[in-house]
Design goal:
The chain has 102 residues and is mainly alpha-helical. The chain is 52% helix and 0% strand. Keywords: Membrane, Transmembrane, Transmembrane helix.
Length: 102
């Protein structure tokens, strides 16, 4: 039991076990794009810099579009990478060319 009365995950020695999370590159790209956008908006609000209206309205959709492209690429890489090799080269498996053909 922890000091708050909740049971802890029973790892070795009573330590908490942290589960691994899948890396999401789209979240990283979106976060890295939103930080400078937020900084520019803060600078504009304080009068430090002047942002054109067109730039303000295109930065966020561009960041979202870039993150979507990265997400699609990551999903494609995961999907093709999880299939793995089908077998040794030249091994067609059951029902492949050359089997049952007369």
């Amino acid at each position: 039991m922890s000091r708050f009365g909740h049971a802890q995950d029973g790892g070795p020695g009573g330590q908490r076990v942290l589960r691994r999370h899948r890396f999401e590159p789209a979240r990283l790209v979106l976060g890295l794009c939103l930080l400078p956008i937020a900084a520019l908006f803060i600078l504009h609000a304080t009068g430090e810099t002047e942002l054109p209206v067109g730039a303000r309205f295109t930065m966020l959709p561009a960041a979202l579009l870039l993150a979507a492209v990265v997400a699609v690429i990551a999903m494609t890489v995961r999907r093709t990478g999880s299939r793995g090799p089908a077998g040794p080269p030249g091994d067609e498996g059951a029902g492949g060319p050359g089997e049952g053909a007369s």
